From TrEMBL:
Membrane-spanning residues: none
Entry protein name: 2-keto-3-deoxy-D-arabino-heptulosonate-7-phosphate synthase I beta
Gene Ontology terms: biological process: aromatic amino acid family biosynthetic process
Keyword Transferase: yes
GO molecular function: aldehyde-lyase activity; transferase activity
Source species of the chain: Acidisarcina polymorpha
Segments forming domain DAHP synthetase I/KDSA: 21-258
Keyword list, A-Z: Transferase
Amino acid sequence: LVSRDVKEEDTVISFPGTNATIGGRDLAIVAGPCSIESREQAFAVAEQIAAAGAQFFRGGAYKPRTSPYMFQGLGEQALIIMAEVRDRFGLRIVTEAMDTENLDLVADYADVIQIGARNMQNYTLLKAVGRKRQPVLLKRGMSATLDELLMAAEYIMSEGNYQVILCERGVRTFIDHTRNTLDLSIVPAVHRLSHLPILVDPSHGTGKRNKVVPLARAAVAVGADGLMVEVHDQPDKALSDGAQSIYPEQFVQMMDEITQIAPVV
Ligand code: PEP
Ligand code: MN
């Protein structure tokens, strides 16, 4: 089902009530903080990214953190805040479902259900989102091959949900000057083999604020269908991923630069 041999034309996912699409000609821009920390924080970021042209707001409610003692997310409270963001700013909401237990609740609030890198091969979860109606953003596992990524998408589609968006977010390599190695070569490879759209996440892909905008430009140049970028109004105080979160002013600059490469509607 993921294959271009089965469906030749690109999958374009649309969002009723907006002119936002994922796939096709225009870039889809997903931006927002790593975690929702408060209504004030979420609104401050959402206002600025919406003004700069983003169509989607991201924010973690349930966070897959390396240490159980790190901030785990605000849970349903964060989902409620994101629903307010949607109403106030007209942004569609992208947020992660970490397990089948919280999937129904996340699906009640999300416009796009995110499956995180650590869950790319959680086949029970993939089948469960396959039975949902919303689009699913599937992040590449940190050591997943292209075939493994496409087969994970196949799990979702095999249950009847064809609205799958892939996302490259960097893979583990020996290098240590960035958090992960962003594999931009997967973008044309996906486009050749599959009709599904693919976004690039240069935030988790590099882990470093000053590398996010250059890699965002590169992702667009290589043909990505859009970007997922972490933006925070006070990155130094962020409860997660502050070091890779860009300032709203940098986001504005990024939008200006990428629209010189490809259109954003
Ligand atoms: C995220 O997008 O917040 C996230 C946790 O990303 P990943 O699953 O790619 O690490
Ligand atoms: Mn993050």
